[in-house]
Automatic annotation (TrEMBL):
Cupin type-2 domain: residues covered: 39-98
Database matches in Pfam families: Cupin_2
Protein name per its UniProtKB record: AraC family transcriptional regulator
InterPro entries: Cupin_2, RmlC-like_jellyroll, RmlC_Cupin_sf
Lineage: Archaea, Methanobacteriati, Methanobacteriota, Stenosarchaea group, Halobacteria
Superkingdom classification of source: Archaea
Location of region: Disordered: 101-122
Organism: Natrialba taiwanensis DSM 12281
Length: 122
């Protein structure tokens, strides 16, 4: 029978953390909290981004498709594909983003450079 002692267990993403970033050999994992007043500008990446919705609601546009995402949904943005998002509602949205392949060392770190505060008229 396997040892069920989990005292040495330490999650790499803390439940209440606003954001964490882990770099592995071939990919990056970015856990992010997007506040309710956030959106992103239309942008692209050189890498594939696979976003897992953990909490909240977001509207995503990826290429020619738009959809409302809720916890449990997965959003895939292939390389060089225009995309953007907007947090929907008054609650923050937590996401987990797998970035592959890992970006060049000088570009690694938490995502969010495309995130903006939504204008009042959105």
């Amino acid at each position: 029978m396997a040892d069920s002692n989990t005292t040495a267990y330490h999650p790499f993403i803390e439940r209440e953390a606003a954001g964490e970033h882990t770099i592995l050999e071939d990919c990056e994992i970015d856990a992010r909290t997007h506040e309710s007043d956030k959106a992103s500008e239309l942008h692209t990446h050189d890498e594939t981004h696979i976003i897992f919705m953990r909490t909240g609601e977001m509207y995503w546009e990826v290429g020619d498709e738009g959809f409302h995402a809720t916890p449990g949904d997965t959003i895939v943005t292939p390389p060089d594909t225009e995309h953007k998002f907007e947090v929907v509602g008054d609650e923050p949205s937590k996401t987990l983003c797998l970035i592959a392949p890992a970006r060049p060392t000088e570009d690694q770190g938490p995502s969010g450079t495309h995130e903006i505060t939504k204008p009042d008229d959105i």
